[in-house]
Amino acid sequence: MNAKMKAGVVHAKNDIRYEEIDKPKVSDGRVLVKVKYTGICGSDVPRVNGDACHFFPNVLGHEFSGVVEEVGANVSSVKVGDRVAGIPLVPCMKCEDCQKGNYSLCKHYSFIGSREFGSFAEYISVPEKNVVKFPESVSFIQGAFFEPATVALHGLERVNYHGGKSVAILGGGTIGIMTMQWAKIFGARKISVFDIVDERLQLAERIADSDSFAGINTQDPDFMRQALDFTDGRGFDYVYETAGNVMTMKAAFKLAANKAQVCFIGTPTRELTFTIDEWENINRREFTLTGSWMSYSAPFPGHEWELTSHYFGTGQLKIDESFIYRIVPLSKISEAFEWFKTPGLVKGKILVNSEE
C-alpha cells in the first residue's frame, strides 16, 4: 500500500479540497522535501478561482521551503536534513533557448505547482536541481520568499545596472520592495518607490533606512514634480515597473532620464496604449526599454538563487512582518482562496503552513 499524505487538491474551478493523496516516491536524480511553508502566488489565484488550472486534479504551490527527507540515486548536491527552497521551473535543457542559458524562455518547460504537482502538500518530490540550500541563519519563512526575491533580482539585472545612480521602483508590493532592496545592496545612490498606498511607502522607507530615499504617492497630483525634484530635474537612471498597472507603466516613460534604462517586471492585466507624446519619450530621451520573465540564468538555476540565499543569510535582504497577511494551516487552504474573492482584503502574502 502506498504511503499517504495530506494536500490541497484542486478538482475544479472554486473547488480546492484538503484531502489525503499518495505520498510521492523518490526516483533517480530526485529529492523528497518535507514542506514547511508555501506562499500563495498571484498566479495561483486564477488557477483556483478562475479557469487557469492546467488539469484536474492538481496540487498547486511553487514558492516553498522545507527539509530534504530522502534523496534518490545519483543525487550529490543535497543530503537528508538540508534546509532548502524550491525552484519551480523545470526547463527541457534541450531547446535553443536552454542551450543558450535562457531557461525562462524554454518552449518545452514544466513548472512545479502548475504543470506538475506542487507544494500545497506535506511532501513534494522534485528534481535535484530544483532545490537550493540555505543556512541556519535563514528562516523557513524567508525560504518561502526565495522565488519572488529572485524574480526581483533577475529584473534588476535585465538592464545594465550599476551602482551610484538613481532608481525608481513603480509599485510597492512584494516584488517592488525586493527590487528596491537589491538596488540598494548593489549601490544605488538614490531610490524612490511609487505607490498609491501610504502604508506601503512607509514600509519601503523603513526597509530602505536611507536618507537618499523618497516614497511618493502617485495619487498626489503633484507626484511627478516631487519625483523630478528628487533627481534634480533629471529623471531616473533606472526605472523598474513592478505593478503591471496601466498608470505606472505610462509613468515609467515620464520618469526616465535621458539615456535611462527601463524594465517592466510587472505583468499587465489590461490593454495598454500610449499617446504619441508619451511614446515619443523613447525617441527624445533615447532610453532603453525591456521586460523581465521569471528568474533564471546559467548555470541553472542561476546566481539569482545563490545571491538570495547569501543576502538573506547576511540580513541585508529583509522580510518585514507586514509582508505577510496571514499564515494558515494547510487544512484551511480553501478558506485562504476565498479571501481573494473580496477585492482589497488580502494585503500581503498568504503563507500556507504544511506542518500542523
Q: Topology, pairings included?
A:
Layout: E1 4-12, E2 15-22, E3 30-39, H1 44-49, E4 63-71, E5 83-86, E6 89-90, H2 96-99, E7 110-111, E8 123-127, E9 131-133, H3 140-143, H4 146-156, E10 166-170, H5 174-185, E11 190-195, H6 198-208, E12 213-217, H7 223-230, E13 236-241, H8 246-255, E14 256-264, H9 276-285, E15 288-291, H10 303-314, E16 324-329, H11 333-339, E17 349-353
Helix pairs in contact: 4-5, 4-10
Structure description:
Helix content is 27%, strand content 28%. It is globular. Helix 6 links the parallel strand 11 and strand 12 (213-217). The longest helix has 12 residues, at 174-185. By secondary structure, the chain is of the alpha/beta class.
Tally of strands: 17
The average pLDDT score comes to 96
**Could you give the distance between the termini?**
24 Å
Secondary-structure-based class equals alpha/beta
Molecular shape? globular
Order of helices and strands: EEEHEEEHEEEHHEHEHEHEHEHEHEHE
Number of helices: 11
Unreliable segments (pLDDT under 50, ≥5 consecutive)? Answer: none
Q: What is the radius of gyration?
A: 21 Å
Fraction in beta strands: 25-35%
Oligomer type: single chain
Q: How much helix is in the residues? A: 25-40%
- How many strands, which pairing sense, and closed or not: the largest β-sheet? 7 strands, mixed
